[in-house]
Amino acid sequence: MSTQVSGGTALDCFRRFADAINRHDMAALLAAMTPDHLFVDTLGNRVQGQAIMAQGWQGYFAMCPDYWIRIDQAIAEGEVVLAAGTAGGTIDGTAWQTPAAWKAVVHGECVAQWWVFADNKPVYDILAKRAR
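Structure (tokenized):
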């Protein structure tokens, strides 16, 4: 069951955030984050704060200019949303995609936490070619 939050449900906020990622819309992404937004990647690396996340997203979009996420299923309980789908894009001319899952914690109308769970081996393999 999804709890109603200002501006829609937690699931609505999650979907707006995912849509901003797919559009590479930095203004919308920043507007959808709490000031102390926490990003946690598959390896458990943590990045906190809007300003550093703006740099992170800009860098990722520069590296993978057509990065996208597809949400196949999403469920919400209170302020927590869990979703599963696929992520992909192109890096250095090589297309990749991988199964992915996300966890978001929504506070008010903003995503306070964004956790990514994905097999990043395809990305690591492409980036390893740069080192050669």
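Residues 10-23 form the longest helix (14 residues). Residues 1-7 have pLDDT under 50 and may be disordered.
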